[in-house]
Amino acid sequence: MEIAMREPDQGDASGQRSWSRRRIEDGGLVITRGADSTLRVDPVGFRHGEDEVANPIALILPHGTGELRAAVMLVPNVLSPGSREGRVLLNGYPPLAVTELLHGTEISIGADSLVFRETRSALSETFDSDSVEHCARCKQLLEGGDSIRRCGTCLSPHHEGTRANSKRPQLFCASYDPLCGRCGARFEEATPNSEEERDAD
């Protein structure tokens, strides 16, 4: 499970802003604002300053185990409208004090946007000829017997190696790019341990 946060001042040549990602570990995450009003998402207990730790906007905590593992969001001041910078909305609506997060839930805090994602390890398999699907990267129709790798977040298939028709060249659409061709999640999830690593993501 992870929280993806849209970077406010970064973007590629097309003007699309990038996303930084934080995995939700056992200790959970705390959402605060820095002295410069920048939204921060850090492991519970991580300290930028005493005021940020003492006044969290929200907490995101894991619960359950195995396939039943999920995450809940706690908003301490849900009954108080607060400032525009601190107002929390889930999919456009005010949250309850404790809310279970579902895959794709959009968390808006002022002008900042975060998205909750359920993540699994990427799945390597041989494509089933009874299914009709296209590779998320190259968009070609998959054939029964093709080696594929599915995104751990949205389960979209990508070519990865051997083709059913041996006369066709092998395609490595999964390893061509570390991000899923459909949803943009990483095939191999990493946990940034520092602000520099998070920004580079």
Helix/strand class: mainly beta
**What ranges have pLDDT less than 50 throughout 5 or more consecutive residues?**
9-17, 189-201
Strand content: 25-35%
Return the domain count: 2
Strand order of the largest sheet: 2-1-10-9-7
Order of helices and strands: EEEEHEEEEEEEEEHH
Rg, nearest Å: 20 Å
Report the span from N to C terminus.
Answer: 16 Å
CATH class of the largest domain: Mainly Beta
> Helical stretch count?
3
Instruction: Count all strands and give the number.
Output: 13
- Major sheet characteristics: 5 strands, antiparallel
The overall pLDDT, averaged over residues, is 76
Question: The CATH topology of the largest domain is what?
Answer: Tumour Suppressor Smad4
Give the CATH architecture of the largest domain: Sandwich
Q: Judging from the principal axes of the Cα atoms, what is the shape? A: elongated
Percent helix among the residues? under 10%
Set out the fold topology.
Blueprint: E1 2-6, E2 19-23, E3 29-33, E4 39-43, H1 50-54, E5 58-63, E6 70-74, E7 88-90, E8 98-101, E9 106-109, E10 112-117, E11 123-126, E12 147-150, E13 157-159, H2 173-176, H3 195-200
Antiparallel strand pairs: 1-2, 1-10, 3-4, 3-5, 5-6, 6-8, 7-9, 9-10, 11-12, 12-13
Architecture overview:
The strands form 3 sheets. Strands 2-1-10-9-7 form a 5-stranded antiparallel β-sheet. Strands 4-3-5-6-8 form a 5-stranded antiparallel β-sheet, with no helix packed on it. A 3-stranded antiparallel β-sheet has the order 11-12-13, with no helix packed on it. The protein has helices spanning 50-54, 173-176, 195-200, and strands at 2-6, 19-23, 29-33, 39-43, 58-63, 70-74, 88-90, 98-101, 106-109, 112-117, 123-126, 147-150, 157-159. The chain has 2 domains: 2-119, Tumour Suppressor Smad4; 120-184, Wheat Germ Agglutinin (Isolectin 2), domain 1. The longest helix is centred in the last third of the chain and has 6 residues, at 195-200. 7% of the residues lie in helices and 29% in strands. With 201 residues, it is mostly beta strands.
